[in-house]
Specification:
seven-stranded parallel sheet; TIM Barrel; single chain; 12 helices; binds pyridoxal-5'-phosphate; elongated; Lyase, Ornithine Decarboxylase, Chain A, domain 1; alpha/beta
């Protein structure tokens, strides 16, 4: 047995192309185009960029500078440590806001790192107020209000308490008041208008500040939801903001996996763990190098497929940890051989389509993308080549 002496785990750029089982391509030109499109959609508002969870799995080190170049000046992350990491990838003037705000032990690091905290509770306001007093200068903060989602933010009672006791905000400059929509991907849902009205009503009790409500889907509800700042994440990465707007944004992610083995099945032969799939006629099948450890949801196997030159290749049987088996019977002989590549995501079959097949949403597809892929960041020009010809894997 060979002893593996390479440094593990792999870097965020994934494994070398020559050895990786699959290649993930990320089109940075499409990313920039999507930012400009979304910003144009909310032209009256500041368009921030949400880059939490390593820019939705696409790599904050590569993604954030491109978004800044495209015009983003305000960035949102979820955690203090994500904000500290992001600091190294944007210019000093860029604003970084931490959606969760700091836990007590993280207040110092948050403020010292120049990160703007979102304050979600009176308790959290207290921690940061104390720290602001200790520094002797004002601290810029964002207040989040709970307008109906019961997830984050100050309640009506909390806001009333802040209104009657202004000293609770001493030393804190409220630079933004925000909330978050629960049903923005369903434009007809009455909760949307109720939440917007609730934000206005609650904010009127507080010191005047710019307002923010919309994430990706909310932006596409129209100007009544834009307020002063919008916070898109998913749309930048090519996830459709609602059913009506699929096709509006450019796909950002492509994924191709190597064929490891090809075999011919006879009628009656079965495939995979549990032998759950059985051939009812002779079949050619390929085992490809992507499995549930790479984010290919095991429970999604029934509907999932791969693609080769426009040909749909159904997944047969259960998805394994490191591989899955696909039906290549309809691919003409000689076109696809061992070490060739098939697509799991391509311009015609994107994250939303794969999400639908797996019974989830594009967000989860992106944030589940595996760490074992070789990552190729393109300017769009060579994305197709990487995802179809397999050249990227040998470059
Ligand atoms: C994640 C998040 C966003 C971005 O949401 P998308 O739907 O990805 O655009 C905006 N605001 C808050 C509070 C979030 O948690």
């Amino acid at each position: 047995m060979e002893l593996v002496t390479t440094a593990f785990p792999p870097s965020s750029a994934g494994w070398p192309a020559s050895r990786a089982g699959a290649v993930l391509s990320i089109d940075l030109a499409a990313l920039a185009a999507n930012y400009r499109l979304v910003a144009g959609q909310a032209a009256g508002a500041v368009c921030a960029a949400v880059v939490k969870a390593d820019a939705y799995g696409l790599g904050v080190a590569q993604v954030a500078p491109v978004l800044e170049q495209a015009g983003a000046r305000q960035f949102f992350v979820a955690h203090v440590d994500e904000g500290l990491e992001l600091r190294a990838h944007v210019s000093a003037g860029a604003g970084i806001t931490v959606l969760h705000g700091p836990r007590p032990d993280a207040v110092k690091a948050c403020l010292a790192g120049g990160l703007r905290p979102v304050l979600n509770s009176l308790e959290q306001i207290g921690w940061v107020r104390q720290a602001a007093r200790a520094t002797g200068r004002g601290v810029g903060v964002v207040l989040q209000l709970d307008t109906g989602m019961s997830r984050f933010g100050l309640s009506e009672a909390d806001v009333a308490e802040l209104a009657s006791t202004p000293a609770l905000l001493e030393g804190l400059h409220v630079e933004l008041i925000m909330s978050h929509l629960a049903c923005a991907d369903t434009p007809a849902d009455p909760a949307n208008a109720m939440q917007a009205a609730c934000l206005r009503r609650m904010a009127a009790m507080l010191p005047p500040a710019p307002l923010s409500l919309a994430a990706s889907s909310g932006i596409f509800l129209g100007p009544a939801y834009h307020f002063d700042l919008v916070r898109p994440g998913a749309a930048l990465y090519g996830v459709a903001p609602n059913r009506e707007s699929s096709g509006l944004l450019r796909p950002v992610v492509g994924l191709s996996a190597h064929v490891l083995q090809i075999r011919t099945l006879q009628s009656g032969d079965r495939v995979g763990y549990g032998l759950t799939w059985q051939a009812s006629a002779p079949r050619r099948v390929a085992t490809i190098a992507a499995g549930y450890a790479d984010g290919q949801a095991r429970h999604g196997a029934g509907q999932q497929c791969a693609w080769f030159r426009g040909q749909r290749l159904p997944v047969l049987g259960r998805i394994s940890m490191d591989s899955m088996t696909v039906d290549i019977t309809d691919v003409p002989q000689g076109q696809l051989e061992v070490d060739g590549m098939v697509d799991l995501l391509n311009p015609g079959y994107g994250v939303d389509a794969l999400a639908e097949a797996q019974g989830t949403i594009g967000y989860e597809i992106l944030t589940s993308l595996g760490r074992r892929y070789h990552r190729v960041y393109t300017d769009g020009a060579c994305a197709a080549e990487h995802s179809h010809a397999g050249e990227g894997a040998r470059a």
